[in-house]
TrEMBL record:
Protein's UniProt name: Histidine phosphotransferase family protein
Domain Histidine phosphotransferase ChpT C-terminal: 92-206
Species annotation: Thioclava litoralis
Lineage: Bacteria, Pseudomonadati, Pseudomonadota, Alphaproteobacteria, Rhodobacterales
InterPro entries in UniProt: ChpT_C (IPR018762), HATPase_C_sf (IPR036890)
Cited Gene3D superfamilies: 1.10.287.130, Histidine kinase-like ATPase, C-terminal domain (3.30.565.10)
Length: 212
C-alpha cells in the first residue's frame, strides 16, 4: 500500500490562496454544481409541457420556481465567484439574467451600461445590488449606469427600510452578528479596496443610491 503524506507547504506564504480567493472558489464551486441539476429540472418541465398536456397550476409553480432559482444561482456565480480583470461578461448575458430576475422578483432591474464589461466590475455591481435589495422590502426599480468609469446604482421604491448598522459595514464597521444573507456588505468593500475604488451611498425614505 502506498503511504500518503501531506505535501510540504511553500516557504512563500503569499503563494497560498488568500481568504478572499478561497471564498470566491467556494462560491464558484457551489454555483457550478447547482446549475446543472437546475437546468435538468427546467428541461424536464419543458418536455412535460411539450407532451401535449395542459400546464397545471402545480407544474406552473415548479417552472417559475426553477426559473427563479436558476437565475439566482447564475447571479450568485458572478457575485460570489472568482473574477479578474481579464474576464468579461457580455451585455446580453447580463441583461438577460436581470430580466429573468425581474420577472420573478419584486425588484425590477434596468441595466443601462453599454457593451461587455470586465467581470470584476460586474461582480461589484452584483454585490452592490444585493446590498441595495436589503433596503427594498417592497421592491422597486433599480437602475445601473456607468459614466466615465464610475458606476451608479439608483433604486426607487415605495418605502426603504435600511439597517443603519449593517450599512456601516461598507465603511469597515461590520456588526458582530452579521448573517449569511448579509455577507455582501463585507465582500463589496474588500473588492473595492482590491481595485482601488471608493464606495459612496445615500438612502432616504423612497430612494437608495450607491456608486463606486
Amino acid at each position: 500500500m502506498t503511504a500518503l503524506s501531506s505535501p510540504l507547504l511553500p516557504s512563500d506564504a503569499s503563494a497560498e490562496p488568500s481568504e478572499a480567493d478561497l471564498v470566491a472558489l467556494v462560491g464558484s464551486r457551489l454555483c457550478h454544481d447547482l446549475i446543472s441539476p437546475l437546468g435538468a429540472i427546467s428541461n424536464g418541465v419543458e418536455l412535460l409541457a411539450m407532451s401535449g398536456g395542459a400546464m397545471s397550476p402545480e407544474m406552473q409553480l415548479i417552472a417559475e420556481s426553477v426559473s427563479a432559482a436558476n437565475a439566482r444561482v447564475k447571479f450568485f456565480r458572478v457575485a460570489f465567484g472568482q473574477a479578474n480583470t481579464e474576464q468579461r461578461v457580455s451585455q446580453n448575458e447580463i441583461r438577460s439574467l436581470l430580466s429573468e430576475m425581474s420577472a420573478t422578483g419584486r425588484t425590477k432591474f434596468d441595466w443601462q451600461v453599454d457593451g461587455d464589461q470586465p467581470r470584476h466590475l460586474v461582480k461589484m455591481a452584483y454585490l452592490a445590488i444585493l446590498c441595495m435589495e436589503t433596503a427594498l422590502p417592497f421592491g422597486g426599480r433599480l437602475v445601473i449606469t456607468e459614466h466615465n468609469g464610475e458606476w451608479h446604482l439608483v433604486a426607487e421604491t415605495r418605502r426603504t427600510k435600511p439597517d443603519d448598522a449593517l450599512w456601516q459595514a461598507l465603511a469597515g464597521h461590520a456588526p458582530a452578528d452579521l448573517r449569511p444573507a448579509q455577507v455582501q456588505f463585507i465582500l463589496l468593500p474588500r473588492e473595492a479596496e482590491t481595485y482601488g475604488r471608493h464606495i459612496d451611498w445615500q438612502i432616504n425614505e423612497t430612494e437608495a443610491r450607491m456608486s463606486f
